[in-house]
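Quick start: read one record
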Amino acid sequence: MSSHAPLLKGIITYPITPFNEDGSINTNALNVLIEKLIHSGSNAIAPLGSTGESAYLNDDEWTLVAEASVKKVAKRLPVIVGVSELTTQNAIKRAKIAERVGADAIMVLPASYWKLTDAEIFTHYATIADATSLPIMVYNNPATSGIDLSPELIVDMFKSISNVTMVKESTGDIQRMHKINVLSQGDLPFYNGSNPLALEAFAAGATGWCTAAPNLISHWPKKLYDAFQANDIDRARALFYQQLPVLEFILKGGLPTTIKAGLKRAGLDVGVPRRPLQPLGDSQLQQLGKLLDALNGSPESN
């Protein structure tokens, strides 16, 4: 079991993957965005998650985004690269690429066409861990992966696989976070992956919040985290409910779709989502604009 201090704390931000008009990766826009996210107060950068449309990138594109992201961050913050593959073989290949380009950790989401047993999931993670020295964040998001990792399995992997050092829980069930904490006796750092649960997750002892929100609302998530760190619960509650309408819209509208629309509205054209994803419609754009204007016009916006 790993008992060292968590590598990642606070706000772990997921950038989108920008595209040019011809569909190629726009590394210039990616560099601009990462710089923006660093200055938003993010504590770590996590390219190639679902926000980064990693499932829609080919091998060369995926490698380009991983390499460009690590290079741009330039050791100013930790970089955790998302690895989500149907096969253990491909997951190992990408884990090795992440290590080669200088990532600080990988976030592994098991994805499957067939329903996997706990033994198969355990072996998947153990085999990836054997192939890399990078710390591994177990990512549980059954809504996108089709696989639901129980708290018992997650904690078992943490105790048995040395590289498994943290977990991102995205089911939206706060009780799972509590259970992970109890089963691991508080030794397993857990991170909230559900935007509307940010307040409850920090109250439950979450080490951090994995979110795409800073792409659009800059320092707001960090202010919430800082309020909890200062044990100012009233301020944390006020900050959370101010940003909640935007957080809920991002989730319901789809992460790459809403983030790309909001960035374009703010003057950074990062292209459209890759098909079959579609850009926001006019009514959704208007709604997003109203929510962002209301938040940015609040006293806490500065």
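The CA atoms of residues 99 and 134 lie 7 Å apart.
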